[in-house]
Specification:
Layout lengths: L1 H11 L10 E9 L2 E3 L9 E9 L1 E10 L2 E8 L4 E2 L8 E5 L3 E12 L8 E8 L4 E8 L3 E12 L3 E10 L9 H5 L3 E2 L2 E4 L5 H13 L3 E8 L1
């Protein structure tokens, strides 16, 4: 009976807030923006990602408290700057207070109209040259994180901050592969339609990597 009440209330409270109950929202940021390459021919070869954005379309909060499961879902169409010094907050849940044995957070990235689900812009730098790089992720990506023993208290707000670690996004890609990539107006464009082999390697890395989430506590 309790589980049914939780499930029903979560659907009603996706966009409503109750000041006495805990509030949970989300942030999405990128970390480790310098990406190493496999089998480098020059010691300093790397990609430095300088800007990027993503479209988190669906946010899911799944939790287990004393053996009872609860699920909350929210949607958004806001573009998130992954490298902003002040991260944007999105998604808003009113959740029951208590200690959660396990919390699973899922952020689904998907394209919006002609905009990709995620875009990263940067520079491939070697000892001999620099070449602009653009990654356009046209496919759906689910970012999944898990946390244990998280305590949520009444009259407080929390931000679940998910980080995309870019250090391994090009895992398995060599400097030679990038230097031999097709250029579009002088830029290495990596997408489902351009340099597709590189694109699918990066897509697999993004989908298979363990992403991190931590909770920030803010009093009302």
């Amino acid at each position: 009976m309790a589980a049914g009440i939780l499930m029903a209330s979560c659907k009603k409270n996706d966009t409503n807030t109750n000041n006495s109950q805990p509030q949970l929202s989300y942030q999405l940021t990128a970390t480790n923006t310098s990406t190493g390459l496999a089998q480098k021919s020059t010691a300093n070869a790397n990609i430095q990602w300088t800007s990027g954005y993503a479209y988190p379309r669906t946010i899911k909060f799944e939790a287990k408290q004393d053996g009872v499961k609860a699920e909350f879902t929210s949607t958004t169409d806001e573009q998130i700057d992954l490298m902003s010094s002040i991260a944007a907050t999105f998604g808003n849940f009113t959740i029951p207070a208590g200690t959660y044995d396990e919390i699973e957070l899922r952020i689904d990235l998907d394209k919006k109209a002609a905009d990709p689900a995620m875009e990263l812009d940067g520079v491939l730098a070697t000892d001999l040259s620099t070449i602009p790089v653009k990654l356009e992720v046209d496919d759906f990506i689910e970012l999944k994180t898990e946390s244990q023993n998280v305590t949520i208290t009444n009259n407080d707000s929390y931000i679940a901050i998910t980080t995309i670690d870019l250090s391994g996004v090009t895992s398995g890609i060599t400097e030679t592969m990038l230097l031999n990539a097709q250029l579009t107006n002088g830029t290495i464009v990596i997408s489902s339609h351009s340099n597709a082999t590189l694109y699918h390697m990066i897509l697999d890395n993004l989908r298979s990597r363990h992403h991190h989430c931590h909770f920030e506590h803010h009093g009302h």
